[in-house]
Amino acid sequence: MGKLINSLGRLLAERVDILIMPRMGSSKKFKVRVLTLVLVFVLWLIITLCGFLFFIRAYDYNITKADNNLMRVKMKLIADELERGRKYLDLTRTTDTQMRQMLGMPGGKFINLPKGWEEAKAKEDARFSEAMSKDLKDLDTEEFEQYIDSIEDSAKTRLASFQEIAWYFANRREGLNSIPSIRPSTARISSGFGYRLDPFGHRTTKRHNGIDFAGKPDSPIVVTADGVVRHAGWVPSYGQAILVDHGLGYSTLYAHTTQIRVKAGDVVKRGDRIATMGSSGRSTGTHLHYEVWKDGQAVNPRDYFK
Ligand SMILES: [Zn+2]
């Protein structure tokens, strides 16, 4: 073993001649140690390897960059596609209004939405137009999702509206079932329509747009006339609420409910169970707040059942 190392040491220490012979002129002769040659070779190997690694990384980086560019192009395509879809949705809104006018549906607008609805809608619209003021490419994932959601919502609203128009068209000749004429709940009436009296017997300024039924939690709520569900879900202060259009200028509202069984666009028949009594929204106890609207005015629901 020692012998081998000795001879290797001798070999490395040995000098070899390197001859450089140009075609013209005299040749040059260098004396180089084998050790130097080995070192040069190792150095060359290291440089080559480093170069190779560097190349691989640069290659990777460029591939990623190309991928990103491709993604951006794809996103742009999707965004354009969505934008086109949204424009068509806007067009259907015009068609909607025209159909309503042709059918003589009151004012081209079936009902006046209660106050909370308008506020919720305005908030939604503001959020939407804020998202829309940005270039679609610049939307982050969350905003993009919101954007898609708003398109979906708007499509659902439109569909519900068309179903409502179709329903109105099919039913307007036999308007009898469209007029609210039963109790929405069998529970006792705990608060009437109009101005309430304060504890001193004075009329308060706040008008009560409906009547209240106070019953046991989860007791059934039924729809009081045939119609189409315009809205089913959360509304500020009304809680989980259902708004039903009945045609002929009538609509009814059921607030503070739980366990809603219908969704916007559903056709409902008088007496159908649509939810149960709860205490959602601004409510102090389990009760149903029930409103009847006629031609955009809240009327006394007490006049619409025996
Ligand atoms: Zn009430």
Protein described:
The protein is an alpha+beta fold and 306 residues long. It has two domains: 10-18 and 25-103; 106-306, Glucose Permease (Domain IIA). Helix content is 43%, strand content 25%. The protein has four helices and 15 strands. Strands 3, 6, 8, 9, 10, 12, 14 and 15 form an eight-stranded antiparallel β-sheet that branches. A three-stranded antiparallel β-sheet has the order 7-13-11, with no helix packed on it. It has a two-stranded antiparallel sheet with strand order 1-2. A hairpin with a 2-residue loop joins β9 (239-247) and β10. α2 (34-103) runs parallel beside α4. It is elongated and about 125 Å long. The model is unreliable at 107-112 (pLDDT under 50). The structure holds zinc ion. Residues 191, 208, 210, 212, 289 line the site of zinc ion. This is M23ase beta-sheet core domain-containing protein. GO terms for molecular function: metalloendopeptidase activity. The chain crosses the membrane at residues 34-56. Residues 207-301 form the M23ase beta-sheet core domain. InterPro entries: Cell_wall_metabolism_enzyme (IPR050570), Dup_hybrid_motif (IPR011055), M23ase_b-sheet_dom (IPR016047).
